[in-house]
Input
Amino acid sequence: MGAAERAVRGTPNLHRSGTDFAPTFDRRNPMSQRLGLNRLPHPRFLAFLAIFVAVALAAGLAVPGLRPSVALITGFDIGAAVFIVSAAPLWRDEHIPRMRASAERDDGGRTLLLALLLAALVAVLLALGMAVRQSGRTPADLALVVVTLVLGWTLVNLVYALHYAHLYYDQVGKHDRGGLAFPGNAAPVFADFCYFSFVIGMTCQVSDVTITDRLMRRTALVQGLVSFFFNLGVLALTINVLAGVL
Output
């Protein structure tokens, strides 16, 4: 291998999927594989992070006396809502080749993006706790808490659904990686991955879908742990709110 070829490996390049271009990283690079930098985050993820930060800062600066926790929650809610709405068209798409192309590029950069998302959710849970303790528990405060928790829970499971789709349709040689066996043995579409992900989010376990791949099993384990602690946080906040109301 020449010096020029060694210099190119692991650096971003343009990858074409249909009519979309997205910068990617060489999959053969060990460092890229360990850090999950096989591709830069999809614009949907970048938009969520940008809206989250921009709205939180704008709300804090534009509204005098607004608590930082409320500004943080507002930014998260708007960013999460935009992310969820932008992914809605995938729900009804049952065209497998298009699903495969979409899953290949519609991922968050694996480890890096999932870590950023979890950090954002931890920050919002802490902010919600501060908001509940500091506020007078008005109907508006309680509505903000409920909306934020619903959006946060939906966002986490939706991100994992996109990630499962990406892992399943990741190309190994000339074949899909697979790793999930759905009843009926038909090629799964995005709604199937949502079903798998949201069941884990609700129950911290799988249902009638069989995991057949070690990487997929590790990912499901992490999601189950995240769901358990997130649901535990929701329960603690609910008890806090009810104690204040009663």
Observations:
- The first helix runs from residue 3 to 8.
